[in-house]
Amino acid sequence: MVTILEARDVNKTYVTARNEQSSILKDINLQLDKGEFVSVMGPSGSGKSTLLYSISGMDQVSGGKVYFGGKEITSCSEKALAQLRLTKMGFIFQHIHLLKNLNILDNIVLSAYLAKSSSREAINRRAVGLMKKVGIEELSGHNITQVSGGQLQRAAICRALINNPDILFGDEPTGALNSRSTQEIMEILADINAAGTTILLVTHDVKVAARSERVLFMVDGRLVANYSLGKYAKGKDDLKQRESKLNQWLGEMGF
Amino acid sequence: MLARMLKNDFLRKKGISVALFIFILLAALLVSSGAKMIMELVGSINYLFSEARTPHFVQMHAGELDREKISRFAKESALVESHQVVEMVNIDGSNIYMGAESEKNSVMDNDFVTQNRDFDFLLNLHSEIIRVGDGEIAVPVYYMQQRNLRLGDKIRIADGTFTKEFTITDFVRDAQMNPSIVHSKRFVVSEGDFQLLRHDTGEREYLIEFRLNDPGAISTFASEYQASDLPKQGPMVDYNLFKMLNALTDGVVAAVIILVSLILNVIAILCIRFTMLATIEEDYREISVMKAIGISQRDIKRLYMMKYVVMAALAGVIGYFLSFIVQRFFMANIMLYMGTAPRTLLQPIVALLFVGVIFAMVVFFCRLVLRRFNHISAVEALRSGNLGETRISRNRLRLSSSRWFSVPVFLGLKDVVQRLKMFRLLLFVFIVSSFIIIVPVNFLNTIQAPSFVSYMGVGQSDIRIDLRHSEDVEERYRELLEYVQADQDAAAYSPLVTSQFKVLNSEGALDNLSVETGDFTIFPLDYTEGAAPNRENELALSYANSKEMGKKTGDTVVLIVNGQKKTMTVSGVYQDVTNGGRTAKALLPYNKEAVLWYVVSLDVKDGVKIADKISEYEQAFYPAKVTDLQGYLHQTLGGTISQLKLVTVLALAIAVCVSILITSLFLKMLISKDNGQIAILRSLGFALSRIKLQYVTMSLTVLVTGILLGTVLSNTVGQMLISGIMSFFGASKIAFIVNPVQAYLLCPVDGHTDDAGKHSIHERIQHIQDDC
Fold first, then answer.
1. A82:B686 CB<8 A
2. What is the pLDDT of residue B750?
3. How far is CA B84 from CA B199, B234, B330, B475, B552, in A?
4. Model pLDDT, residue B608
5. N or C: which end of chain A has fewer CB within 10 A?
6. How confident is the model at residue A27 (pLDDT cuts 50, 70, 90)?
7. Distance from the first to the final alpha carbon of chain B
8. Quick one: B129 exposed, middle or buried, by C-beta within 10 A (0-12, 13-18, 19+)?
9. What per-residue confidence (pLDDT) applies to B770?
10. Candidate from A79, A98, A106 with C-beta closest to B398
11. How far apart (Å, rounded) are the C-alpha atoms in residues B31 and B37?
């Protein structure tokens, strides 16, 4: 297996308002293989989101090193990191974070236009294809205030995928959605993963994590356990069964 | 609690709060100073005029004078309270030395007088009637200021073998001739010295002065005087004109100060509007919580109002009191030239009222902004997160349909279009800045251009030779013409004689009219309407005369020529800012009895040096004034040009400072407002440089639009404004001469403001990066 993302002894500390050091991530060691679907779970404040942003290059680490595609990214310039996010990584957030002054289609094509990955016509065609795939093709001209949360998250997924990223990071991507939308979004993510894109998700939801291949458990800034569920095969695997296995493991972990 | 909230709000927006405070403070300071200046000016003029007992009617005269006739006329007139004839010795500037250099290049007519006995007193700097002994002199304040003179300094008169030295013992406040725009100045000497000067040097001139029983009857008296056979060759001036001339310079300055204050206040109000809406948007969650726990809308509004009311009140009060400190600076000129009238309470009260208006404007606009708040429910605020002003409006600009623009440039342009209302503030500042830079620059270029002579009623020629009235002027004029005719270097010449004719006014009485006669085709002039006279019964009028007489092209005017009534048709109207703007042109033979001056315009052949020709004529026809066009312009308008240059530099500095300040504050606030959107872009892989490009595109788009609109406004409204002002001086249709080099150089200067913007963008975005 080829390693796509690796964290070695990563630490992250903040200076508090009282000028005290607060350690958020402690000696994180992590390896993600290409094509893997990994979820990170843990209690609130355990450092899950900080881990996601630190190893994706969105935030700087205080110590240790992160490698992406075999290349160290912790010492990269701001410009190089931006280019990496633009072309190799995709992000989905809990609060959807689409640009208010652009319509749905413009939000999706934005980063591809910037990356100049192909002609603008080709990018538009690809965006329409992605929208069709996630079921929002009729919304392309809509303003973002005119559509539902679930639809917006689908648009955010299309935006994250427009540049064909090697890895997709998700920070509670279904956190603000109802259970039906959550199921639909997770099916889409499973399809994306099946097509070869690596996914790293932060979630509280067992139903979401049940589709991942591996679940990491975080407590107080440390990765304390690793549980392998095996690759999820859509239509073949019993999702309920995976959920109860995961629940049982989490119970053992005291979650 | 309120105080704590105010403090927190101030700390949260330190930069903009301080800037707003300074703007309101400056507005209050300037409006208070301007109001006080106007009050002081009116008070001082009235005080000066009453202390000096200024004459109501003055006829200037050179040549023979029958004092008996004047006394008889005064006695017979029921309107006259008292009269006097002031004798003056006019000494050429080249014979007066206030230091090593003579006053050869001065445009002033220098007259030496003794103190008057009955009225028209010349006052010293304590507004007391001047008394000088032999060997002593009192010098006009104009020279004190211009030549930096002090008590005890020496002045020398040297004319051929005659030399006389005086010691300065006082400075003269002269109600008639104080202002620098009046080109005559009076020096006071003792009776003994006056007789000496009268005997040995200079030309004799007279002021025939009258004080009337009723100052309101000046025009009736003027007609009475016109109908008499008393001297009328020189200029005729009256009390109202003296007042106007004294008030003009400082009055214009006071008006400009008040105007600047209003502009500052408008900028402050627009800033407050933007800040207020942005603050409310930021606080919309807190607002809905406040509403939810039952705080009334009125109380919430008061919370937002309070900061600006406190700020405006504090700034107003400080500005008002500061104006007492800086008033010496603004009023130094008034106090020097006119003295200080006894203080009244009215002045500080009026100033306070003006400051009150500034305060009321701020409060009123705050209330207006907050009214919008009424229509928006907390739920809506929660949902959309904005209150209208900074809201994004829908538009058809679509990234997916754009082919040419790069993504950051597109986003920048789209933002400007969608948030046009928000960018109004910046646009307004750029338009005003461009306007206040371009209008003075264009006017300066226009007034400095050789073609400006066409606003002075003169055609363009290489050299202009001026002969003023004197005993032997007819003889000198004849010699000059013979000399020019014989001059091999002269390519063309045109003798023009200005003499006074009587003209029948609308009431059937006779008025004086200065008419220039000669051939006007040699050095043609631009006419605002009609053309130059080309028949004997045609007459062209200056703009001021045409307006005053109510005559247009094609109308008729009755002139008295050789004692006979002659009906003349107005052939055209031209602009003339010289000689009070009241001149006319005709092809008549000139009136030998009442010649005012002779002018010969001359063009030299190619290859002949104009400077050499000028000195040749200067030597041959001393004391004729020989100038090239530039020199003529400079002599006539030199003072105005140098003042205008100062105004231009000041305007440039103010405009650039205001633009830089507002741009950087605006962008700082905009970027902190767009914090969330910038974070999204960064998560998508937008490098900092690309986000900066987006914001630079925004500010440049607004800047370029502002400069373009400012330029268009300067060349239309600005030109109209200048023409409106200049029409008081006799030029109604000023067409700006735009110097493209300066105009294109100015844009980058103004564009420097964008550097401030870039700096601000860089700082803020860097900050957001750290926050992410």
1. yes
2. 52
3. 22, 17, 37, 33, 39
4. 86
5. N
6. very high
7. 32
8. middle
9. 43
10. A106
11. 10
Q: Rounded to whole angstroms, what are the CA distances from B267 to A202, B270, B317, B572, B661?
A: 49, 5, 19, 45, 11
* Cα–Cα distances in angstroms (integers) from residue A240 to residues A207, A213, B555, in the given order: 8, 15, 106
C-alpha B483/C-alpha B155 separation (Å) is: 37
User: Can you point out the beta strands (E) in B133-235?
Assistant: 136-140, 154-159, 162-172, 184-189, 203-212
Token pair belonging to A189: 């993510």
- Check residue A184 and give its pLDDT: 83
Query: What's the angle, vertex CA B620, arms to CA B619 and CA B622, rounded to 5?
Result: 65
Question: Shortest Cα distance from B403 to chain A (angstroms)?
Answer: 7
Alpha-carbon Rg for chain B, nearest whole angstrom, is 33
Determine whether the interchain pair B394/A111 forms a contact, defined as Cβ–Cβ distance below 8 Å.
Answer: no
SS (H, E, C) B459-492: CCCCEEEEEECCCCHHHHHHHHHHHHHHCCCEEE
**Given the DSSP bridges, would you call strands B463-468 and B625-628 parallel, antiparallel or unpaired?**
antiparallel
pLDDT band of residue A41 (cuts 50, 70, 90) is very high
pTM of structure: 0.69
Report pLDDT for B372: 67
Checking A226-233 for CB contacts under 8 A at 24+ apart, the result is A231/A37, A232/A37, A232/A190
3-class SS of residue A236: coil
> Which of B400, B677, B772 has the CB atom closest to A99's CB atom?
B677
Contact B564, B558 (CB under 8 A): no
3-class secondary structure, A57: coil
Q: What is the pLDDT of residue B743?
A: 60
Q: What b/e readout covers B730-746, taking b as 16+ CB neighbours within 10 angstroms?
A: bbbbbebbbbeeebeeb
What residues have CB less than 8 Å from B574, skipping those under 6 apart?
B454, B457, B525, B526, B527, B528, B540, B541, B542, B543, B585
- Give me Rg for the CA atoms of chain A: 18
Taking CB atoms and an 8 Å limit, are A59 and B772 in contact across chains? yes
pLDDT at A113 over 80: yes
* Per-residue pLDDT, B375: 60
Cα(A202)–Cα(A30) distance, integer angstroms: 14
**A124 and B681: CB-CB below 8 Å?**
no
Residue B371's pLDDT is 79
Cis link prior to B740 (omega < 30° from 0)?
A: no
In the prediction, which pLDDT does A201 show?
A: 93
Q: What are phi and psi of B583, to 5 degrees?
A: -135, 175
Amino acid at residue number B338: M
* pLDDT at residue A124, as a whole number: 93
Do A114 and B689 count as a contact with CB atoms less than 8 A apart?
Answer: no
| Option in A82, A100, A113 nearest B399 (CB) | A113
Q: Chain A contacts of B680, Cβ < 8 Å? A: 97-99
Closest CA to B516 of B626, B632, B596, B624: B596
pLDDT value at residue B305: 84
CA distance A253 to chain B (A): 32
Which one of A86, A101, A124 has the shortest CB-CB distance to B400? Answer: A124
Contacts of B766 in chain A (CB under 8 A): none
CA-based torsion, B648, B649, B652, B654: positive or negative: negative
Check if the beta carbon of residue B582 is closer than 8 Å to that of residue B477: no
Helix, strand, or coil (residue B261): helix
pLDDT computed for residue B26 by the predictor: 87
The answer to whether B37 and B252 are in contact (CB under 8 A) is no
| Burial B466-484, CB ≥16 within 10 A → b, else e | bbebeeeeeebbeebeebb
Check pLDDT > 90 for residue A123. Answer: yes
* Three-state secondary-structure class, residue B383: helix
